[in-house]
Structure formats: C-alpha cells, structure tokens
Amino acid sequence: MLLKDGKTYPSICITNEPFPRVFKTRNIIKNGSRYFGPYSSNYAINTLVDFIHEIFPIRTCKLNLIKQNIESKKFSVCLQYHIHKCNGPCVGFEKEEDYLKHIESVEKIIKGDANELSKMLFEQMKLLSDEFKFEEAHLLKIKYDLLENYKSKSVISNTILDETDVFAYDEDENSCYINMLRVSKGSIILGYTIEYKKRTDETKEDLLAIAIVELRSKFNSTSKEIILPFDIEFPIKGVTISIPQKGDRKKLLDLSIQNVKQYKFDKLKQTERLNPEQRNSSVLKSIQEKLQLKNLPLHIECFDNSNISGTSAVAACVVFRKGKPAKKEYRKYNIKTVIGPDDYASMKEVVFRRYSRMLEESTPLPDLIITDGGIGQMEVVRQVLYDQLKTEVPIAGLAKNNKHKTNELLFGFPPKEIGLKPNDQLFKFLAQIQEEVHRFAITFHRDKRSKQQTASELDNIKGIGEKTKILLMNHFKSIKRLQNAEINEIEKIVGNNRASIIYKYFKGDLSL
C-alpha cells in the first residue's frame, strides 16, 4: 500500500523565537516552532497568510530580536513600519507581551475560531466611536470588515458542527483516493487528499478505515464525529459515524466528494500528459531552452571520479539517449597517469581518452557533457575539448551548496548559475543522471578495491599461484567465505596439499 504523504504540501509556521514570525513553508523544522496544516490548496493558505499580515502587525523580517540586540540599538525600522504593517519591535516600539497577544489571535484564526476576535474588534470600534476617536475607529472597522469577509468565505456550516472530520472516497483501476476535511467551530480549517495503491484483497471499506486512522493520527485529530459516504467498521471507540442525506453535514460531505474527484481527475490528466516519452521530451526541450543549445540534447554524457585518499582511483561515464540511460554504452576507466587524490587531473585524463578515441573512430560526439562538479571540473573538460582536441561540445556542471546538495546547474564560460527548483522535472532528471554516475563510479571503485584486497591477501600465502587463486575466487567468491570454509571443501577445489596450506594460513593452526 503506497501512501502519498504530502511532503510538498505547505503549512503555516509560527516560529519559536522572540517576536515570532508567521509564514507559509514546506519545510518542517523540529525547533519548537508550531506548524498548522498541511494545506492542499495553495490559494487557501496564501489567502489566510495574506489576511493575517493584513489585520495583524506581525513582522516579516528575519532579525534576531533578542533583548540585547534591541537594547543596543542594533537595528532600525524598515518599510513595513512606515506603512503600518509592523509596530517596530526591532527598535523597542512594541513590547513582546503585547506582540504575543497578536500571535494568540493569529493562532485562534488559524484554528478556525474567528468569532471571539470579531466580537472584540466590534466592541473596541464602538468604544472608540463613543469617545469620538473616529480615525482610530475607522482603522479598526477596516480590520473588522476584513475579518467578517474572511469568515464568510471559510464558514460553510453552522457552529454546531464543532470539531468534525469529513472523509470522501473515490477510486480508479489501480488507486484509491481519500479526502479529509477538518471542521472547527463551523469553519473548514484543513483539506487534504491522499492516494493508496489498491490490493486485490482490500475493499473500499478497508481502505477508508485505514486512511481515517492514518490521517487522524497525522493531524492529531480528536474529533468525536466523523462524516462518511458509507458505513465502515471503525476501530476507535467513542467516535460517532454520520452518513448524512441532507443538511449542513451533507453539504460538507458533498464538498469533500468534490475535492476527491477533482484530485483524481488532476492525477489522471497529469499521468496522461506526462507519460515517460512525453516527459523526457519535455525535459530535453527545457534543457535546450535554458542552456540555449543549438540541438536538442538527445545524447548526454556525464562523468564522475571515485577514490579513497587516492587509492584505487577510477572514473565513470554514463550515457543518456533521448532522456533514458543507455547502459550498454556506460564506460569504466582506471586512472593510469595520476598519482594520489587529484580529481582534476583524473578528469582530464579520462575526458581526453574518451573523446580522442571517439574523434579517431569518427564516432558522433554527445550533444551535452555534464560534470558532477563545479567550475573547476568544467574548466578541465573545456581545456581538453577546446584547447587540446580542437572541438566544441556544450559543457554543463552540477554545483552543490554548503550542505553538499546539488542546487545549481552551471553553463557557459565563464559559467553562469541556472537555479533549479527541487520539484521541477528538470531537477529530477539531472538528479537521476547524477545518481546514476555516482552509483556506477562507486560500484566500480568498490569492485576494484575488493579485487585488490583479495589478490593481496592470497599473495601472502606461499605456494599458491595465479591459477589456484582464480579457482578459489571462482568458487568462494570472497575471502571471507574462503576463511570460513572447512578444509574438505577447499580440498575439492585445489587438492589436499594446497588446501592444508590455505587452511593453516587462515586458521593459524600449525598442527595440521
């Protein structure tokens, strides 16, 4: 069963810091900050966050507003203060206890409880008006109207439906989809849809029950009522199941059904639109456009080195044709001319060996060469191709950030950075190439080291020649299995005398 866990869905974060910030995020950091969501609708979360910053003077800066920094006059007010979107806590214009009252109100609104705040604003507005403070009363009225407008959009049922979970179900041939709506004080505060891969032995009742438990746990729901499209055996005691036919509960169920059907429709359309062939073609066109290549990069090659402190140094080249790995064309290279750990020199050797041979044999060169490295690796490839071999092939590099994660595509000389979005198909395609060349290079390096270690170990046994080594390794596959073998098993491969020598060597038993 496959759960699409919604890692990319955004949540609202209230940070754990002096004068907390409120913003939309897709990254959950366990540092004491509070997260609300995730929200499946970008429009819904953007509307809510914009509304919060419109009605409350919550800071948007990332300044470290500890008491020492504020008292030392380290900061100055920004534009947000001058347009009355922030009260200037960075310079001591607002006390933290007053600021935290805004945060308490923000949290209530996020949780769906806007009525109390609305009542408070109305009473303050009336009081100011009675005191003839019309300008201040007008500013409160603007906020009051914004809040009432927000409530009218979020409330779709009466407040009797307090803390209710709504679930809807739909399916196609291979998958099922379950939508969850959370209702609090008459407002929908969460909408979320997941996908399960169906099994032949699971009914829709089974899948819905599993999803309910999973989602209620995920969002820490303790609602005593759940609204469903059909009856199920629910394992949690004290929870009432409603299968409404009319009224506000039916309206909520219909909305959840509409959401799950739309989700399924969008998934199917996406699958139809981005089948493998179309996806690859789209990615290659994207590369061509971003790098302004003359030709569509139907033939791409990528290089990587692998060594440990300069030992068993190797390199690998992987080939992609029409966006797919062409594994029969992959090549491994033992580094022959470089002593010690020198990635640039190793890259120079391998690139020269590969492309000088291709030119001699009149083999078509790739449409694009990618180095698994930054500017230095690109420059080495440029020197070989442009200066030594007098040929030009577009060269790109995959650069990493300070956390050693690929985040930039480099191209041109001098290289220019082309930002990559982690969820973009282009990023995923380049990551696939990078992972493939890493895998191929590291596997080759491990194999080489293993063979060298094996050969070295058997070389220490006097009286054992090359043919015997080959026989032993063909049968036992590894030194460890040979070490653990009984003497009669070794005798079957190399005879009594050699078996005795080998067994005594590994066991340290000189009495045999």
Automatic annotation (TrEMBL):
Biological process annotations from GO: nucleotide-excision repair; SOS response
Residue ranges occupied by any UvrC family homology region profile domain in the UniProt entry: 201-385
DNA damage found in the keyword field: yes
Matching InterPro entries: RuvA_2-like, UvrABC_protein_C, UvrC, UvrC_RNase_H_dom, UvrC_RNase_H_dom_sf
GO cellular component, one term: excinuclease repair complex
Keyword check for Membrane: no
One MF annotation (Gene Ontology) recorded for this entry: excinuclease ABC activity
PROSITE patterns linked to this entry: UVRC
Pfam family, one: UvrC_RNaseH_dom
UniProt KW keywords: DNA damage, SOS response
Record-linked Gene3D superfamilies: 5' to 3' exonuclease, C-terminal subdomain (1.10.150.20), UvrC, RNAse H endonuclease domain (3.30.420.340)
NCBIfam families, alphabetized: uvrC
Protein name: UvrABC system protein C
Gene: uvrC_35
